[in-house]
Design goal:
With 264 residues, this protein is of the alpha/beta class. Helices cover 39% and strands 16% of the residues.
């Protein structure tokens, strides 16, 4: 079973999220071993302080090296080996499904959440294996990022998702967005479920799903098509789709969508 430790000043916040839904269920079922640690518990300071002013001056406070290092040591000692240590920071490599797959291969991760203005560089140099960001925007701390990474990595572990939720089939796994999906009733507010999906004709349904997955990706995230694995049939469909959209756009007098998603 994979183990994930989260070192944070807000372990209750992390626990609240990780107790719920699919991750919570998996933890209770013994499919995931997740531990949240209060970094403050590892300080030797009588006031339990974990931050201090910057050398060289400047506004704000920095998390000190020692409490973080002692937390790391406690985790190493408990497990008997060293975890792969990830520091969540806006300076990190941007998190993608590819990175999630990579991280899901480790037996044991330690996710370190920064706060205040950051963390003393020396403890980062000493224990961190890689730095990860969840996108180009600024958060108040690494907790939400650690939770995002924990969720994405956890759902790939065996026994975490039920059979019908299997992660192999969906967005960002094959590199394409999903097709539109429908459930009962067949007509709602005058909108009907596409006839082919009600037909029971398996091959036609498969083709409809593939084409709409391609169309969704082309319209919403054309950049993803560059990396997706496309068959000759997919590429033919996309060429025709582009022509259709161009013709529709010309008729309506609007500019064509960006053309980033050219086939390889
Ligand atoms: Cl990992 N931390 C913070 N503070 N902000 C972020 C982030 C991480 N990833 C994106 N923005």
């Amino acid at each position: 079973m994979m183990r994930i430790d989260i070192a944070t000043l807000f372990p209750e916040m992390c626990e609240r999220v990780l107790d719920e839904s699919i991750i919570g269920r998996a933890r209770r079922a013994g499919k995931l071993d997740i531990h949240c640690h209060q970094i403050r518990d590892y300080t030797l300071d009588k006031q339990k302080r974990v931050d201090d002013t910057l050398y060289g001056g400047g506004k704000g406070m920095l998390m000190q090296a020692d409490p973080i290092f002692r937390c790391y040591e406690a985790v190493c000692q408990e497990v008997g080996t060293r975890p792969h240590v990830v520091y969540l920071s806006p300076q990190g490599e941007v998190f993608t499904q590819k990175k999630a797959i990579q991280l899901s291969g480790y037996d044991h991760l330690l996710l370190l959440c920064g706060h205040y203005e950051g963390v003393d560089q020396r403890v980062l140099d000493e224990i961190v294996d890689e730095e990860v960001s969840i996108g180009d925007y600024v958060l108040t701390g690494g907790e939400l990022a650690a939770l995002v990474v924990t969720d994405a990595v956890s759902r790939m572990q065996e026994g975490v998702l039920a059979g019908e939720e299997c992660f192999m089939e969906e967005s960002h796994w094959n590199g394409l967005l999903e097709c539109p999906q429908y459930t009962h009733p067949a007509v709602w507010h005058g909108r009907e479920v596409p006839a082919v999906l009600q037909s029971g004709h398996h091959a036609n349904i498969q083709q409809w799903r593939r084409e709409h997955s391609l169309e969704n990706t082309y319209r919403k995230r054309p950049d993803l098509l560059c990396k997706a694995q496309l068959t000759a049939k997919d590429k033919l469909f996309l060429r025709r789709l582009k022509e259709r959209i161009k013709a529709e756009g010309a008729a309506a007098g609007v500019a064509s969508p960006p053309d980033e998603g050219e086939e390889q």
